[in-house]
Design a protein that fits this description.
Strand content: under 5%
Distance between the termini: 190 Å
Number of strands: 0
Mean pLDDT: 89
Low-confidence stretches: none
Helix content: over 70%
Length: 166
C-alpha cells in the first residue's frame, strides 16, 4: 500500500463523516453564521447609510455656517461703517460745539475786557477830574487870593459870557 493512494474503506468513512459534518453544519451552524453575516451586512449598510446622511447633513451645516458667517461679516462691516459714520458725526458735532463755546468764551472775555477798560477809563477820568479840580482850586486860591484879582477874574468871565451870547 502506498501512502499516496488511500484505502477505499477509508475514503468511504471519511466521505460519510464529512457528509455528516456538512449536514450538521448546514442544519445548525450555517443558519447562525448566515444570520450573523446578514446582520453584520445590514449593520454595515445602515452604518454606510447613516454616514452618508451625516455627511449630507454636515455639508448642509457647512453651507449654512458659511452663509451665516458671510451674513455676519456683512453685518459686521455695516456696523463698522455705521460706527465710523456716527463717530465722525460726533466728532464734527463736538468740534462745532467746541468752536461755538470758544467763540462764546472769547466774546464774553472781550465784553469783560471792554467793561473793565471802560471802568478803568472812568476811574482815570474821575481821578484826572478830581486832580484837575484840586489843581485849579490851588491855582485859583493862589491867584485869587487878593480881592483885586478876584474882581478882574469876574469881569473877564462876564465879558466872555457876553461875547458868547452875541
Amino acid at each position: 500500500m502506498s501512502l499516496l493512494t488511500p484505502d477505499p474503506g477509508l475514503v468511504f468513512w471519511m466521505s460519510l463523516s464529512f457528509g455528516i459534518v456538512v449536514l450538521i453544519l448546514a442544519r445548525f451552524a450555517f443558519p447562525v453564521i448566515i444570520k450573523a453575516v446578514d446582520k453584520r451586512t445590514l449593520f454595515i449598510e445602515n452604518s454606510v447609510k447613516s454616514a452618508r446622511e451625516a455627511n449630507e447633513e454636515l455639508s448642509k451645516i457647512k453651507e449654512t455656517g458659511a452663509r451665516i458667517l458671510a451674513k455676519a461679516y456683512k453685518e459686521q462691516n455695516a456696523i463698522l461703517k455705521e460706527t465710523a459714520r456716527i463717530k465722525e458725526e460726533i466728532l464734527q458735532e463736538a468740534h462745532a460745539k467746541a468752536s461755538q463755546e470758544t467763540e462764546r468764551m472769547i466774546a464774553e472775555a472781550r465784553k469783560q475786557l471792554q467793561a473793565e477798560k471802560e471802568q478803568i477809563l472812568r476811574s482815570i477820568r474821575g481821578e484826572v477830574s478830581l486832580m484837575s479840580v484840586t489843581l485849579a482850586e490851588k491855582i485859583l486860591r493862589e491867584k485869587l487870593g487878593k480881592d483885586k484879582e478876584q474882581l478882574k477874574m469876574i469881569d473877564r468871565l462876564l465879558d466872555e459870557i457876553e461875547i458868547s451870547k452875541s
